[in-house]
Design brief:
Elements lengths: L12 H31 L11 H4 L9 H8 L1 H32 L7 H8 L1 H4 L2 H15 L5 H24 L5 H8 L4 H30 L2 H6 L8 H11 L4 H30 L3
Helix pairs in contact: 1-13, 3-13, 4-8, 4-10, 4-12, 8-10, 9-10, 10-13
Amino acid sequence: MAKVSSLPPYATPMERAWYYLFRVICGCVFLFLILPILVIVPLSFNATPYFTFTEGMLALEAEAYSLRWYENFLTDPRWITSIENSVIVGILSTVLATTLGTLAALGLSREKMPQRTLIMGILISPMIVPLIITAAGIYFFYSSVQLTDSLLGLVLAHTALGTPFVVITVTATLIGFDKALPRAGAMCGAPPTTVFFKIILPLILPGVIAGALFAFVTSFDEVVVVLFVASSPEQYTIPRQMWSGIREQISPTILAVATLLIGVSILLMTTIELLRRRSEKLRGL
């Protein structure tokens, strides 16, 4: 098959010029956004405890580079505690957010659902309301029920922040869902649980997994709520420990942690994009 040109043959010189200029502008914006992040990566291998490029690093000398900050991240008890807290809170909040968000999306997808718009607005309000206001509200509520400085409080708070992402992704997946399939399963005598796990869930699974990944990333990177409800070092997550390190003791270990988080984010975003494409294929888009 012959390669189809992106521009029609009748395009004017001005249209052709704008076609390429637009791509140059997009590339410049992309570099403007990504370069500050890329600078962190080589600095995390700095052998000296500085946040600047040394002469040896610029000269590409092997002695100027080291893995000491990555080793410190994996051996320091404070960082190990923050890793454990982030993983525990992230996994538990993701499970809760995915379960609640999926059930909410299924309910909102019903044609006779009353006050659908109002309920949807309430569910996604954590994405709309400024995070500092949400964190302050959670703090005052937790103070009255004795949930501050507890992993349970962090899990519930991160669940509230991650649920809207699950609701949106699953709702988007349900747009192309054939509602005749569950009815057909029910007519064949299958109970509701069997219909859900054998018919509905396999078809919306890409959206559910994508929502779960969004919820996990939200929990894993969140710091504002943790600043309000976790004052004890035993409750620090990785972002909270990074915040503490920046304010109290400057260490290039923070750069190593930031580099690892960038890698995790890229991996998760790639997974979400692959799931999105698979979901489109299943829906025939």
